[in-house]
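Structure request: glucuronosyltransferase, Strongylus vulgaris.
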Amino acid sequence: MGAIADTLTEAGHNVTILMPVMDIEQQDKTGVKLTQHIIKVPCDPRVAEMSKDKRDILSKMWISQPSILVMLETAQIMTKSFTYQCERVFKDEQLMKRLREENFDVGIAEAMSVCGFGED
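Returned structure:
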């Protein structure tokens, strides 16, 4: 997404990135070089709490025997994280008002999270 944003910025478009922070350790990594207008949404406290166990979960993922139960558990954790962070975005009334007032022409969201298209 960062490459797309920078390409559009370089072509003269006014680009805004909405960046819900899912991982506090990664919050300063935007993936862009040229695009300057970035709106960061702080990490939901529930996601931050879940992230405390991230290293343990990830290390087990690489050493445990392949198991559908482990895969389902990991998917459930990821689903909860995205749901909580999405709620955090949409419950921020000031942010929603600000985004509506921008009158964007186009919206592009990550394929793995449709949260970016949840507001009319």
